[in-house]
Amino acid sequence: MDSLPPPPPAIERPAQPSLLVSARRNAAQNAEDAPVFYVDATDGDDRRSGRGPKEAWKSLEKVNATAFPPGSRVLFERGENWRGSLLASSSGTTDRPITYGAYGKGDAPVIDARGSSVAVSLNGRTNVAFDGLTITGAADTGLLLGPRARNVSVTNVTVAGNGGSGIVVQGTSDKLRIDGSAITGNGAYGIVHYAADNTDQVITRNTIADNGWRKDGGVYSGWNGRILTGEIAHNRVFNNGVNGGEGRSHGLYHDQGQAGSRLKIHDNLIHDNPRGAGILAKSSTEIYRNVIFRNADAGLSLGQNRGIDVTYRVYENEFYDNNGGVLQHQKGNGSITLELRDNLFHRNGKRAAIIIADSIDKAVTGNRVSNDARTEAKTETRTGTTANQPLANQPSANQPSGGPVQEASGMRPESVR
């Protein structure tokens, strides 16, 4: 898109504290005795020691073949470009991770796969950090974190222009941080978790945009996966699914099959995803203080939970210019419990602001609904029902366009995959 207007000032976000304070403190404490290795694509030489800028290695092959002790930092010179794949060769420890980072001045160092399947791979290692790199050019995956990403951090990294997904979390992950990065312009998912029961997953302060352009019919969302514990917060998620095929592509997609999930999605800007919902949640999710606007489908779609009992807590969000605000659809065999309170809805297309398609356990209260672009119309609600009562100067509930709440047990809106 040529330009994107700023979101309405309905939600004031608190300052975001650093997620890596303790890790950086530990790194500083160990800096004196942590070995540092340098890599220079232009003036390096693999026959050297690698232990200083003037002793820098040259190739990825040398880095991939070296066993590093815990706490090592492997630094690539800024402004340089390497062709091929970077494969983590060693595991660190909890307080002494192996770090692949950058040194010098200029643009971030580039790892360009040049058509290889993967640009950068965790390669089965644990306690590894990737910081300040650009990862591109893979036929499939930009950054492959697996087969298990345990105590892994990805900070200030750009993962862009890969033919498949930007970041793939392969296998069950524990203690993963993806922070302050740009995951953009990848053919499939921006970020995807392929396994269930991922714990302590933190995805924060990233730009996740322009992914999902492949035309093979996949549901290539900005993020897709199943998280047991963690948060997706303070991200900007937009334009995923641009130029893609017939499949749906959502901003964030919390997939089905995650029993007992306590994922929190909060304080994100999620907008202009052209082939799906802002958020699609099939597993239990707490969703709050997001601004969700101009998505092709509903701002938030809930349901399709199959045989798992799920609970949704949805509060203090703002929805506007989507094709419906909140849509609960196609309940599975498991139960659904929905708390929907204190949200702001205005001008959400041809659908009602709130549609609940099945008989579920619900508490809908304190939401404000308006048909106008910027008018906030206060409504009264009855806890345990979906019968929001509009004010006298507001549209009636049976108005087909923009009515505050529509309850239609047994209704089947179009399938959302």
Automatic annotation (TrEMBL):
Keyword tags: Plasmid
Q: Where is the composition biased (Basic and acidic residues)?
A: 44-54, 371-381
SUPFAM superfamilies recorded: Pectin lyase-like (SSF51126)
UniProt-recorded name of the protein: Right handed beta helix domain-containing protein
KW Cell wall biogenesis/degradation (keyword) present: no
Superkingdom classification of source: Bacteria
What the entry lists under SMART domains is as follows: PbH1
Q: Region (Disordered): which ranges?
A: 23-54, 370-417
Q: Residue limits of the Right handed beta helix domain? A: 116-244, 259-368
Q: Which species does this protein come from? A: Azospirillum baldaniorum
User: Which Pfam families does the record cross-reference, listed alphabetically?
Assistant: Beta_helix
User: Where is this chain compositionally biased, Polar residues type?
Assistant: 388-401
